[in-house]
Task: structure prediction
Amino acid sequence: MNLPQVVQYCFAGITVGSIYAIVAIGFNIIYNTTGIINFAQGEFLIVGAMTAISLNHFVPLPVAIFLAVVITTLLGGLIELVFIRRAQNASVLHLIVITIGISILMREAMLHIWDEKVRSLPYFTGTGVSTITILGAHISPQVLWVLGVSVVIVMGLTPFFRLTLTGRAMRACADDRMAARLCGINDKWMVTLSFMLSAGIGALAGCVISPVMQTQYDMGAPLAIKGFTVAILGGLGNSMAAVAAGLLLGLVETLMMSQFDVAYKEAVSIVILLLILVFRPSGLFGKHEITAMRAV
Amino acid sequence: MRKQLVKVTGILVLAIVIAISGIVKAADSNSSPRANEPTIKVGAIFAVTGGAANLGGPEQKTTEMLVEKINKEGGVKGHKIELIVKDSGSKPENAISLAKQLIEEEKVLAIIGPSTSGETMAIKNICQEGNTILLSCAAAEDIVNPVASYVFKTPQKDSDAVRRIFQVMKAKGITKIGVITSNDGFGIAGGKQLAKLADLAGITIAISEAYDKQETDLTGILTKVKSHDVNAVVNWSIVPAQSMVAKNMKQIGLDVPLFQSHGYGNIKYVQQGGEAANGTIFPCGRLLIADLLPDNHPQKKLLAEYKKDYESRYKEDASTFGGHAYDAILVLVEGIKKANSIDRDKVRDAIENLKGLVGTAGIFNFSSSDHNGLGLDAFEILTVKDGKFAIYKN
Result:
């Protein structure tokens, strides 16, 4: 393979990889605050994209995306209030199953509201045929948007969780909820906030990938599975690791595709997930102690 | 004491609900039209929801519209058609249980559909063993080859589609191609036909890959195709891939002609593909360019009428998929008329002997060895020009 081809494959790899990474970050935010895996995460991406597509008929694209993110954020909060908060004393396993139910509910609601058609947002810059040449590889400008938005999200979240009071409060809830309450943190609102944040960045991600991957009511589940794989791969709870793991998985998938039958592409991520769970369950970047402490 | 009361009330409520639903169901079946003659029970399995909804939706709408029209005009030989439509959700497993239900419980004379090749192959044996006529709206050659006496299909053969594509390629001087297909029944069958007929046409397939049927980003696989320096790309799938492939090709700088399958038969895919879709070449039934046909073309009247009725009733563009369902009902009705009976074996025999039947997909000539009845001439080669379908001229 010559250099332009390698670069082309790499771009394809990091594009899908960054999408997986964003979904994984959404998982991590909620996991960090509550210890549950929100399997409805994929649906947030699709709801955000579908809402933006509908709004785009009335308002310009940036406004539509902004409103879609806001609406999905509120929806995330609503879902938490209605389903999760009520299940106060449920175990983590119960809550995870509840999120699976929520994802099914959201999917059917989306089918009802938007029907089964495949839609997409218009390309942010240029059109469906625009192409940029970088190091001999041709890519759509939208790819750069996907990468750019992913970087911005990660760059924004890291200081949020490390430095701001709210972010640290959320991390405190994950560590020990009772202790956090004793410190005066309103843990219930932290949980709601984590859902809202996850939903919001999910919606933004959904919008930015919509021109490239298109949007259909049932695309949430496969995205959630890949995102979950990446979250585990990087170490559950670690967002920076999720980004690295996402890019890694994306690259591995694409490079495998270049050498072997494309039909095996999906198998790659599942095999990697199995290997990680068997040999290094705390993920590539996770610490062993953390897995031991978080006994579900 | 209170707990007992709640339990008893709960059981009473449940019993009442069951009783009421039982009464409602009995009343329902009593109120269904009991004409002097028995109704003809026809089942239909369509992918109204799910991945193939673009096929199943129009098929369901067309079937309902046509059966309503037939019943309004007095039915077939005085018998009204009782249509039972089931949604398979594009899943072969669902098609199997629905087929069993229609055959064993409803005891239908015939089943229209399913919408996809995968689903049809899953129920082919069930229908054959159940002596139920199956008029499939799916394209794979395997459906009628080997021939099962009760199984027919109305879409054109995918092998003929491939032959037409190769004809166009030869005329354009294309020798080396890349083939990408989806991994569902339709895609795999198409890939097989392309591989089988390439040598005969003098075309070399430099690379042939299958992708997941839900895949929407084809840049990776197209990059692999690009590395083989092909003169053209053939894509064999339904949505979502067939809308994306043209865009992805332009984005990665793969500037060669794109050929699609006859699954491209809906203007929606062109709209989804945007600017990139211009120049796509594909074989198709004549429904999409009915207005461009000369007035003396045998299919023109039927196509124009169907298009007008469908579009005015459902406010969406007609597609070739709905046309396949139209043809299926047409074949069944003509079979019943020709047999002058609703006995399933007589109708089956009659269908096998239908000749010169003008449908939306072409002109049908069935025989005991040909349960599809359409040939190469059922296809017109179309292209996309300025976002609209046009007849391809070399």
Remarks:
- The CA atoms of residues 78 and 105 of chain A lie 14 Å apart.
